[in-house]
Amino acid sequence: MKKDKSKVTLSDSLKNTVYIYGLIFKTAPWYIIGRMVMGLVTGLKHGAEILLISAALNAIDRGESFESIVKILAAMAIFWFCYYVFFHLYWGQMNAMTRLRFQNRLQKIFFVKSCELDLASYDTPEFYNDFVYSMKRVDTVMVYATDALGDLIRSITGSASVFAVLFTLDPVIAFVVCGAAVIAMIFRRINNHISYKYSKLLNEQYRKEWYIDRFFNTPDFTKEIRLTNVSDNMLKEYDNKIEASRKLNSKWQRTMLIFNTLIFLVNCFSEAFALGYMAKNLYSGIVLVGGFAITVNSMWKLNNMISDITNQLVNVNRQSLFMEKIRTFMNTKANIVSGERIPDAFESLEFKNVTFAYRDEPVLKDVSFKINKGERVAIVGYNGAGKTTLTKLIMRLYDVTEGEILYNGYNIKEYDLDLLRKKIGAVFQDYRIFSATVAENVLADLYIEDKEELVVKSLESSTFGDRLKTLEKGIHTQLTREFYQDGTDLSGGEAQKVAIARVFAHENELIIMDEPSSALDPMAEYELNKSISENAKGKTAIFISHRLSTTRHSDRIFMFEGGVLTESGSHEELMRNNKNYAKMFNIQAENYCVS
Length: 595
Hints:
By secondary structure, the chain is α/β, with parallel strands linked by helices. The chain has two domains: 10-331, ABC transporter type 1, transmembrane domain (ABC transporter transmembrane region fold); 348-589, Rossmann fold (3-Layer(aba) Sandwich). The protein is 64% helix and 11% strand. It is built from 18 helices and ten strands. Strands 6-7-8-3-9-10 form a six-stranded mixed β-sheet, with helices on both faces. The protein has a four-stranded antiparallel β-sheet with strand order 2-1-4-5, with helices on one face. Helix 2 runs antiparallel to helix 9 (289-331), helix 6 packs parallel to helix 9 (289-331) and helix 8 packs antiparallel against helix 9. The relative contact order is 0.08.
């Protein structure tokens, strides 16, 4: 039976809480130690205050000298002065510095962890939602957890010291206050689970809001917004989101009102009973005015602190539901596991009866072929034929569902993953330009001066040389304006050339290019293909393209349809076969001349 993720058992809550505090301590030990010490000191302060006030009132009731009372008051003043000096030093200096350092370190840990995840993790909506939540809320949740621990220590320490004083004054009131707090805790626990369910539903609305925010505030959609009426759709979705959020919030607030009212009534009953009981004792002469004041003050302090404890314990359980997302994310292990074999120089790549299913939907079906060193192979087919998926399998961004892929005769799973990928250079159809310099974009790494010639040569090989000459800072030009206002935005074709230059900047023995000229005009495409052919001599190249004019000079062409390899051969052989490849080529040939 599938576990209800809206509920967490006590065991789960403890495991999650211990894990989170372990991660916090590992990341920033002084931050959590400082918060615990602050909680302990603040908690003991409450008991010390009552003892000092009790001493002063008892001295007055006993008719002691003014000098004795002044000494007690002086001790109180010194105590409070020392406490507030410590309080302001902690919150004003130590906590602020260690908290910022902790948040930065923690976020960096999560950035590194995200790099370890399999690509398939991003394809699972549930995991991806939890991943996004963890990345966006990790520092908030962790800081809250640390503060909650300090507050819990403060409340436990304070309530223990106050209870001890109150118990010596009147055990009945001490137990009445504790009993009311237990009942209130039960109500808060029920309210906690209901609130979490509502917050989870609201989180779905927040995801819509984040998308709409990106739609209107990032450059990705600016052209479509101005040239179409698509913004009307987004505004309509925004209105729907607002209405859905309003209804959820309304239900949530009504539920909270009911339980908060019950909690309020329980507290009112306990306080009314205690005050009535103490008033009776005062009237009967069992206690004096000083004792009455101390008892009432202690009762209110104890009631507030026990309420804090119940709130904090309930909130720990509630936060555990969120902590579990972070714990699950951090404990996620990659399914793509590296082997130990060191890859030799490339000789061959072979698919043997490879089948791959994406979320139970077959994308490639029983595919078999072999590519030898130095071959230039083109992979063609209609949209959705599985061409791009095939390249991701070669790079081991995914693993095959059935069959195997052989590199030099050995299953690619046997090879060291990083070393295998360094043998393969790939430019994907959905390439990205990073907010970094031109050189850093080409290297996809940190730039060092001795790589200047390599970067320039790589850009010239991708026919970006002429555009490079127009850039005032050359290869040190900052791309995009995400980090710097004076950043340079490239056209689609220029950006694609920079992405292609990455292949030439590394010693790759197998080159994969997925639609390498999709953003170029015919003349620029011709120049690029010519340059690629010259610079890829002696290397094995796999091209994916919808434009068959760019693939006709390949040694072999693989035609894919619906995830199945249906045709294989040279351009001339496939044209003679007069099947779907020939039909596709002839249709495209009507729009360009073929020499």
